[in-house]
Amino acid sequence: MAIFLGLAVRERLHLIKKMLTIGCLGISFLPSVQAQAQDGVVIVGKNDWLFVSYENVLEALDKEAQESFSLIEKLSRMLSRSGVTLALAIIPSKMEIYAEQLPDNFKVNRYMSEFNDHTLAVLRASGVQVIDLKKPMREAALRDLDDPLFFRLDTHWTSSGAFVAAQAIYAGFQVSPVLKKAYEATHLEEYKLTWLTKKQRQNTMRDIVKFLPAGATTYPPEEARRFTVKRESELKTPLLSTINDTEITLIGSGFSGNKTGFDDALRFSLQRRVQNYSNNAVAGHWGSMRTYLQDDSFQSIKPKILLWEIPQRTVGLGPNYRFRLPLHRVDNNEWLLGVAALVQTHCEPALIKAKLEVAGKRLAGDRRAKPTQQAGFAEVLFDKPVDAQSFLSARLKVDGSKQVTLEAYDQHAMVRKFTVETVGDEHDHPFKTPLSLTSKGVTRLKIYPGTANTFAIQDIKICRYQENWLKSSIAQ
Questions:
Q1: In b/e form, how buried is each residue of 434-464, taking b as 16+ CB within 10 angstroms?
Q2: Domain coordinates of the chain in residue numbers?
């Protein structure tokens, strides 16, 4: 199996144009459609339906897809050890749900048609709780042609699509013993859903139109059904409720944004509180997950269920995908060891002592919070090399700076330089990160907080990972 799945639009345009140039897509276009696809990656379908070419798949990315599946499987296992059940929901492609609206000369290749079932099979075989959205969404699309699940002019789903997906997720929770057990351990919270009587004009849901070439057909805004969701017990529940708001957490893409109503549809379908930590995929689904795991909301109170929504077009592209924006491109092993450190609940001592050095122009990174300058740094020395089997755990306060830069050294030279996002307020927060990504050990670490009002680091420990996460384990 293979996948062609995009991320930021600029990156997807780059790759799709390259594939069109060398003739690697394995699909056919009408002459007018091909011209538009090369300019804006737009496929003009029937009845004013617009699609994007980057939803199609490429056999060349099969190896990358398998590596991505392995990362998902390992994350699922990490979370399970910490008492969190990962539920994965892969959003099917618009062109498969509405295949009848594609132009007659556009043929979805066999990899695309097999991708959903193959992905479900591989992930389920490795123990991941993955929910099938394609079948129920396809059935709903065929059942009611007047209430589309995707916008004709946009890549995202409508409120109706979000509702069908949420209902499918509830059904998935009931048929999986693992998900059902986790779901039944959460608290009931009653919600009421009301569909608005009139369709609403959608002026902003038309992202595909932006990529049409000059002189193309003009499309008026669509109208679509919308709903509202209200918590039935709003007037009954005390202000200081004892219910844990983070029992079910949603991490997702733009499909989980506030405009779609997906989080509200989940609240109604599950009859549970759902905390939405989606950031509309600015950093991709890998970056979104890492950001959430680093957040105090996860570090202090872990959810019982973590629902990870990923579009089909991106699920097989790893953190190191070559066309990802450099700001968000991360080595696969770095992402894996980073989230493993963040998820691990207890520190298993690595029998490595850490010593905080304070000398010369270096920062005093002790319990006394101090102002810092751009070139200032704190230095930590280790009495034994810290390799990829261990990670650093500490409490960090950086007020006024949103990231710290770290330089890791062995006995002779710097082996790694990287940055870590921080909260940037006056409080101290958990700080966990791998230092080495290989067997080569780190004996010295420099921490540059940048220009900050205060900086302090304390409770420095070196912890052992519970497992050698760099070993391959995905079912083939």
A1: bbbbeeebbbbbbbbbbebbbbbbeebbbbe
A2: 9-212+221-343, 348-464
Q: How far apart are CA 188 and CA 337, in angstroms?
A: 35
* Closest among 129, 231, 136 to 173, alpha carbons compared: 129
- Ordered mean pLDDT values, 10 residues apiece, the chain (476 residues): 37 43 30 39 94 80 91 97 97 95 89 90 97 97 95 96 98 98 97 96 92 89 95 62 77 89 97 88 84 93 96 92 85 96 96 79 48 73 95 93 92 91 90 93 93 90 95 55
SS3 427: coil
> CB of 366 within 8 A of CB of 449?
no
Task: Report which of 192, 96, 198, 200 is spatially closest to residue 158, judged by C-alpha positions.
Answer: 200
- Whether the full predicted model's pTM is greater than 0.85, yes or no, is yes
How many CA within 13 A on the CB side of residue 217? 16
Beta strands per DSSP E along 3-160? 42-44, 50-52, 85-91, 129-132
- CATH topology (fold) of 348-464: Jelly Rolls (2.60.120)
